[in-house]
Structure formats: C-alpha cells, structure tokens
Amino acid sequence: MWFHADSSNYGAAQVGVATSKTVDGDYSWRGNYKPFGNDSRDMTVWKDPDNGAAYLIYATNNNADFSIASLDDDYYFPKASLYTFPGKYWEAPGVFKIDGVFYLIFSKQDGWTPTDNFYMTSTSMAGPWSEATLLAPEGSYAYLTQNAYDIVIEGSEQTTYLYYGDHWSGTQLGSSTYSFHPAPHDGTTLSLHNTGAWTLDLETGKWDDLPFDSITAADSTTSKDTLVACEDGCTGGVAANMTSGTSFSFKYSGSAGAKVLGIEYVYNGPKNRFLHLAATVNGAAAEGNALAETSRGTTFAQEVPFPVKLASGDEVEFKLLDWDGNAFLIDGVKVYEDLR
Asked: Which strand (E) or helix (H) includes residue 154?
C-alpha cells in the first residue's frame, strides 16, 4: 500500500509504504520518506501488466515538478529517477498502457477545484513524452472531475478503459463523490465519454449508455414566465431560469418504479460554489438531495443524478434551496431506470 504521507499543513510531503499478505489484513509499516530526498505530494503507483515493472509518479519540488521513478523489485522503494517535467505544476497522475504505448494522465493544480485533464504518450516510461492532449473538451474540466484511478477491464469481447475521477466538493470535502467514465481509445487518441448513466458487462467488457426518457424545459409544466432562451444548445431551445421564487416541474407519464432523474443544468457561479435542489413528488418531499456544482462558470449542461420513485401521473417539482443570484438554468430532465 503506497500513499501520500503528510502533516495537516502539507509540510511533511512524503510517501508512505505498508505491506500485508491480504488486502484486508494486518499491515506492516515499511516507512515514510521523501523519494531521493525530494518532497512528494499528489502521487500514484502503477504496475506494468506486461513485465511487472512498477513506477512512482509524483508532484515534487514544492509541487512545481512532476516526476516519474521506477520502483525496486519488491515495490518498497524508488530505484531510479526516470523523467521529470520541470515547472509544470501538475498532479492527479494515472497511466494506461495500450498496444505498447503509455498514456500518462494528469491535471493542472488548482486546489480542490476541477481543471482540464490531459494526457501524454510515450513508448517508454522514461520518455521522451509527446505534447499534452486534452482528455475532454477544453473548459469541461473533465466533466467536473480530476483523475483519481484508471482501471482496465479485459473482457471476452473487448477491453474497456475506465476513468475513475474525483468529483470534488471544494468547500464541503466530506460530501465529495466519484464519477466513472469510459475512456474510449480509437487507435491513436484517448478521450472521456460524457454520460449521465451507463452500464458495463464485466465478463464481455462491453459498455453502453443507458436509455432514458427526456423531458425538456419546453415540454415541462414549468411556468412559461420562468423559461428563457438557452445559449448552450439545449434540447427544446429554452431552459428554466431558477431563482428563489421559481421552480421546474413536469408530469411523469412512464412506467412505475425506482428511477434516477438526470437533471441537466448550467450554473455560472463562482468556482466551488454549490447550490442545492429539493424535489417533491405530488407535493411530498422526495428522499435525497441533489447537489449541483460549478467550476469557473461552466457553459455546458452538466447532469446531476436524483433517485426517486415515480408512478404515471406523478407531479414532480424542483426548487433551489440556496440561490446565490447567479444564473442557474435547468435544460431538462432525463429519466433512467434505477438498476441498482
């Protein structure tokens, strides 16, 4: 078990290592230290599935540099420093190896705020490395995530590359969550697939977006006085302008059962500012609370899940609990079957 070992003020800046015979067993402390005498903060370890070689990738030099080191044969200590990107201020490292090519994922540093994620390629972990390429469209901030871990699903029919991202709540860290995205590889490039709901078959490795029923703001029962033309190309051409005195509502006409409502919204507030939506079904409060978030005024529709039980004819209404005066537009709602 490798981890970022630090003090409460981030002054220690070390790595820590512990070992156990089983993942849930008793661990023996192997030590905490600075690799090659240099500080280490955001970091990961990655093992090459082809030859068993393992690597430490870490932010160092007071977070200014981004370094790659090989580990010794028992994975206890760094063995050799292989490559350093100086003066970059990068973090959140992760690696895929695809057809003999290493894809090194990272993001720029900005505290507990999502930033655009990038990747570089090389045929060796020691470099040379290509120029950085965006993993998702610029300004999407990897769909408000930061790379945390990267998983390869080798199925009987296809290999799926799975991006596992931190979904930070910057001012409410205890409520932070995770977001999973397929990372399609087209032979030369890697990307993130933006989806509100999807399913993965672990045996075959195949994945697909889940079907949904769409309720646009134009088709909703929202007051016409609340609807405004939307600039982000939303379906239906209008969105509900949510304030402390308005709401978004619709009448459900599908099959009864457990659903997940994917609420599509645009919020142009300050970074790490969170607004809360409350839902009612036929006037009764729905269980759960949707947490909508922003980063530097995103201008594209995000989708936040809200679990609820519905029957045909139910009236659903959403209201903002803590409007801050900034524009919050709901484009519409996608209704998914809750498969959990």
From this structure: strand 146-154
